Amino acid sequence: MPDHPHVPPLGFHATGSAPIRVATGPTRTRKIVSWNLLRRTGAAVADLIALIEQENPDLLLMQEATRDIAALRERVGGAYAWAPLPGRIHGPAIWSRRPWTTPPTVIALPSGALFDRVCQVLNLGDFGVANVHLSHGQMLNRRQLRCLERNLPPRAAVLGDYNIVGPALLPGFRDVGPRRPTHSMVEVLPLRLDRCLVRGLVCHEPAVLPRGASDHRPIVVHLTPATEEVRRPGRTVKGMVAAVGRLRRAGGRAAHAP
Fold first, then answer.
1. pTM for this prediction
2. Which residues form the Endonuclease/exonuclease/phosphatase domain (predicted)?
């Protein structure tokens, strides 16, 4: 897939504190729900149908979806695409209420020690949407995000299970998802693992939905291309190095904790 598929010009600049201006023309808000289903023991097709009926999203992004989830298309219509992780029974999946012109592209991400990761990128025309389930390694998952960014159009959203603790460190993107925890580690430590980062978009009404049958709670966002000038702070190499150093020190303290 090209680094920047054809989209209306934005005046987007990759560096500095440059404004992002949206091309004139009609735009509309898309409601997007993202949910980690917990493969075979978590949410099933019936749970997804109930969620669709309750929230009426334009897109439903799923992580840890299995082959059985394909029955969703037969039950509620729409378009559906699944990308199983290599050698695994599960992977990311996207359901769309409306037919898409081009199916989602599958992007290979840098591999972890246990298994390979892929993500899906769907071009909606006025912006792109990436569905991710990143690795647990706190350096690796940020490297996966930077790899993914090269395959996104200027206006884009990245949603899913980030498995990230702390800031995502993806220059040019803003974390606009809900700030409430979405997962509890061993039912004790609440974590905000499910996120939404955007570039050149505005997010309305981010929310965390009831947990349901999975160990993750779904998140919902309403996204639309920015309709006025948006300035994003530039991130220097020095700032990135400092942030990575803090992550490494935090990881070292955790490893030596009693």
1. 0.79
2. 33-216
